[in-house]
Amino acid sequence: MTTLAEPNLGNGRNKGLFNNMTGFSTLITVTVLLLAWLAGFASRLFAVIRFESIIHEFDPWFNYRSTAYMVQHGFYNFLNWFDERAWYPLGRIVGGTVYPGLMITSGSIHWLLHALNIPIHIRDICVFLAPVFSGLTAIATYLLTAELWSRGAGLFAACFIAIVPGYSSRSVAGSYDNEGIAIFALQFTYFLWLKSLKTGSVFWSICTALSYFYMVSAWGGYVFIINLIPLHVFALLIMGRFSQRLFVSYSVFYIVGLLLSMQIPFVGFQPIRTSEHMAASGVFALLMAVGALKYLHSLNPKGQWKQLLIVGGLVSAALVFLMVVFLTYMGVIAPWSGRFYSLWDTAYAKIHIPIIASVSEHQPTTWSSFFFDLHVLVCTFPVGLWYCVKNINDERVFVTLYALSAVYFAGVMVRLMLTLTPVVCVLSGIAFSILLDLLLREDELPAAPVEPNDKNLYDKAGKVKKRAPEPTTQADFGLGTNVRSGVLIAFMILLMLFSVHCTWATSNAYSSPSIVLASYGNDGSRKILDDFREAYGWLSQNTADDARIMSWWDYGYQIAGMGNRTTLVDNNTWNNSHIALVGKAMASNETAAYDIMTMLDVDYVLVIFGGAIGYSGDDINKFIWMVRIAEGEHPKDIHEADYFTEKGEYRVDSEASKTMLNCLMYKLSYYRYDSGGSPPGYDRTRGALPGNRGFKLTFLEEAYTTEHWLVRIYRVKKPYEFNRPRLPLAKRTIQTSLTMSKKTSKRRKGVLKNKPTLVKGKKLSKL
Amino acid sequence: MMPAMAKLQFCVLFLVYVASQCGGANVDVVSSAITVKNVDRTIDISSQLVKINSKITFENTGKSPVKSFLLAVESSSKSKLAFIGGKDSNNKDLRLVETTVKGYDNAKFWRVDLKESINAGSTASAVVETVYSKALQPYPTAITQQEEQLVKYIGNLYFYSPYPVTSQKTNVILNTKTVENFTKVKPFSQLDGTIAYGPYTNTAAFTEKELLVHYKNNSPFLTVTRLERLIEVSHWGNIAVEETIEIEHTGAKLKGPFSRYDYQQDHHSGPASVRSYKTLLPASASDVYYRDTNGNISTSNMKVKKDSVELDLRPRYPLFGGWRSHYTLGYNVPSYEYLYYSGNEYLLKMRAVDHVFDDMQIDELVTKVILPEGTTNIKVNFPFSVTKLPDSLHYTYLDTKGRPVITFSKNNIVENHIQDFQLRYTFPRILMLQEPLLVVGFLFALFLCVIIYMRLDFSIHKSEHPHKD
């Protein structure tokens, strides 16, 4: 962003030069926003340029698959879609268990483009949707910040959010996930909320509700909005900032938003039945009570009403609270879900829901990742927050609450860094705007009247260089020229470092499709390891159409998306016991696993094995989570301690525990694995020689292993196939007559029904 | 004026005549004047195809000059016949017309019209090339990863001819010494991957005797089960070709497990599997892409040669017997090499099917030609008989009424079918301006709307404070 060198911003002062200041600053605003859009879009294309236009990772594959389904079969069929290819034998009602906003968005773009005869494949739309929406997010952030502070701060914020790694981590090209569009919806909803709060107009409130509706349809994070806005209202009430505008905007937003959000099949009646949504209802009831009391107060504005107001407010708040508690107790309202508890107690998930804890993005955030994702903004945003608190008004109360809650959530879970990023950008934009405001004030002509309200002084730092050398007439007015130029240069460098860091982080950390791996040779040549698609391609072409693939849930969406085969468990981890069953099969020995696999009609087993190339995200490294999840459901059969050595180490070499060396996952990973490092069969990921080698499989056979051993697929033998004990001929007895039932004696072995009678010399007319 | 009845009668007669001309094929008789003096036959079964090259010398033993002769293919193999073609002694192509002979309903006949008739007592020679696909049966039908692939060829020991043959020789080229079993009818000799039969003298017309060779054949048994070739012609100087290919290894099926370890350790492991194959594209091909539904297939190499672009295509996984794969291969060629015009008349000359791999066999080919919008008077000449599918319209960028699409299909294609088709059409050149004008017009209208909108004031009342910056 630091490279946008507009010749002269005008700052609304040089009225002699530019007659139409509105037009000029609009031009600059539009230009900066467009360039922010462009830069944000371009910085997200690393994966496409390095690899290809491809859907990344895991969840995006499901989104892409359902989008493709919707485009092919129509919206209503999509809503009614029962996916029998997932969660075999349970199936999954996709339409009712998905936030359809993402699919509808890209589906409508696809429809529009095809109506204009632009034949773009739906995959390309899906790949580029998130980068395009990052530009919209930048605009929404600009609007939000402009509402909060000034347009200059807005432009800063827009430029920040366009490239900040914390947001681009979830919105690079190919990362086709809910978050990509949800952050736009989030920012836009907040902007509209502030707008409606400022104006008190029903129009803006309805717009807020509509935007909220879009957010609900797009991401489960809408709960953040429906708790933050009531919190804001509540805070305003406590601060005594009740106004008719607040009353109108919140009540309209709440009612319309509630009704709209219940239209999403996946959300359904949750907004009135679960604890997560009760804050909004409670605040609504409270607001109504306060409004009524205020009205009564306005009828007779005498002193004694004041106490009544306060007491009445408190009583109604207590009443609402007790009501919610009572309803929860009665079971009308569902209590907090486990995922929600894990937000308050970081150790909760580890103990009660291992499946949540097993996901790396659900871990608590480290300090370094704050800096990595936000860079300089993490230091400057408290400044903006401080200024907001200092110059408080209704809107700034909101952004303060937003910032505080987002910081908390981001600290709890790495994944929620995403909700923190926008507010950090907003506040940093404000901070930078204030800074430049301070440093550049003396540059104005002495005659120019200083308008205290005119805050949109600066859009960017580029022009400063030109002005800094100018001699200042009022050197005694606050800061000296040298100090100012020094500080300016320092901040310029900071911003430059920021943009360099953003590009670097996006390019190196977040732009890997993770289904295509690249390795670099000593001479810098690049080698692409395409094992995942090799395996999925093999599955899709060379197995029966209804073949059922058992794998760990991480790969469920990819198998369905790329291999188009039935899976047992996938990334929509809705059924813990089913996942535990798969985990149990992986953790048991071959015989026990075979029983589970026949019970589940498994045809193929797919495991990821990184030992040959040193890929660390493979199944053996994830295996301990499979054991934990399995133990949670089957504590009698699986014991986590069995898989560790006596010293409590997790290892695979000859010192590993016996259970470990004989479990299915171990065997499938190391079956006939003899290539790799210098001693044959050396596991490069664990840096160890496997402890159990040269074994044979009884119930499975290797069906396919990819070129770098990354994906191994085994076929589960049918009961008649595996090695039965060979009986000597004399001992073989074939029972025939005993099993025959009297009733069906006509259907004896070797007898044709309606057997044609052959007469020699006559042609057979009909068989 | 004809009376109505007579008119109707005439019509009916005419229709019957037309029907008989169209429906009933030509009927020929086997001329007794011709004998085949000598046949030199080469049966090449070293690849997955059976390529039979017969050098035939005819003799006119009758009185009058003979203008044509008949070729026959036995009933057992006529369904596998992919291609038949003939050349005369001057190496010029002969014209073959499909025909029937009364009394031999099972066999298939072609009448070859000679440019110069054979005079009584003189001889003429011709080279006939026939290609059969799927005539080699893997036997055993399923093998393990380490085993060699054995196939069985069952053919005719004698040249199948409607005329008596005085002398004939047959060479069977196997390119391998590993022969399990073969028909032994003296005289014969086996030498370095070739089995020579004959000479046999005086075989009667339509003689059939089984020739069986059971031998090792590890050449790639790949069948393209379906190839869809899309040719998009643009008058802006580019022709885009895209081929969607479904491919299957139709050799002996893989039995038992696939072991990556064996496959990696031992280079001779999986002798019957196909790791990669070469596709030749036109020399001017550029912007080549090779992908499937999951994205690019990153394992391929491209070499630009003088007369062609050679692609070394590696499927995502090696193909063993019974394994399938599919991919899309696309490239651009400049249109000046294939598109000729004079005024508004255009002629497109392109291959109806192109090389996929050596000794390819294609079960089903569908070729689609997308012509520019506004094309009329489309006439196509095919080099071989095809099934013409109904024309359709294709919509792409900036189209208003759609581009005409010519579609035709053919089954059982081999390399000999790589021939040009010719497509003539009329395209008013002024229509080239349509698309740029459409864009210009749209932008103009857009700006005009914005200009008008900016100058209109829809507000009900003037706002109190003028719009603050």
UniProtKB/TrEMBL annotation, chain A:
Keywords: Glycosyltransferase, Magnesium, Manganese, Membrane, Metal-binding, Transferase, Transmembrane, Transmembrane helix. Residues 28-427 form the Oligosaccharyl transferase STT3 N-terminal domain. This is dolichyl-diphosphooligosaccharide--protein glycotransferase. Its cofactor is Mg(2+); Mn(2+). It is a multi-pass membrane protein. Pathway: Protein modification; protein glycosylation. Residues 549-605 form the STT3/PglB/AglB core domain. It is found in: Endomembrane system. InterPro entries: Oligo_trans_STT3, STT3-PglB_core, STT3_N. Its EC number is 2.4.99.18. The chain crosses the membrane at residues 21-42, 93-113, 125-143, 149-167, 188-213, 219-239, 246-266, 278-296, 308-334, 370-389, 396-414, 420-440, 487-506. It comes from the Eukaryota. Belongs to the STT3 family. It catalyses: a di-trans,poly-cis-dolichyl diphosphooligosaccharide + L-asparaginyl-[protein] = N(4)-(oligosaccharide-(1->4)-N-acetyl-beta-D-glucosaminyl-(1->4)-N-acetyl-beta-D-glucosaminyl)-L-asparaginyl-[protein] + a di-trans,poly-cis-dolichyl diphosphate + H(+). It holds the Pfam family STT3-PglB_core.
From TrEMBL, chain B:
The chain crosses the membrane at residues 437-456. Belongs to the OST1 family. Pathway: Protein modification; protein glycosylation. It is a single-pass type I membrane protein. GO terms for biological process: protein N-linked glycosylation via asparagine. InterPro entries: Ribophorin_I. Pfam families: Ribophorin_I. Component of the oligosaccharyltransferase (OST) complex. The gene is LOC112051249. One of its GO terms (cellular component) is oligosaccharyltransferase complex. It is found in: Endoplasmic reticulum membrane. Keywords: Endoplasmic reticulum, Membrane, Signal, Transmembrane, Transmembrane helix. It comes from the Eukaryota. This is Dolichyl-diphosphooligosaccharide--protein glycosyltransferase subunit 1. Subunit of the oligosaccharyl transferase (OST) complex that catalyzes the initial transfer of a defined glycan (Glc(3)Man(9)GlcNAc(2) in eukaryotes) from the lipid carrier dolichol-pyrophosphate to an asparagine residue within an Asn-X-Ser/Thr consensus motif in nascent polypeptide chains, the first step in protein N-glycosylation. N-glycosylation occurs cotranslationally and the complex associates with the Sec61 complex at the channel-forming translocon complex that mediates protein translocation across the endoplasmic reticulum (ER). All subunits are required for a maximal enzyme activity. Residues 1-24 form the signal peptide. Its main location: endoplasmic reticulum.
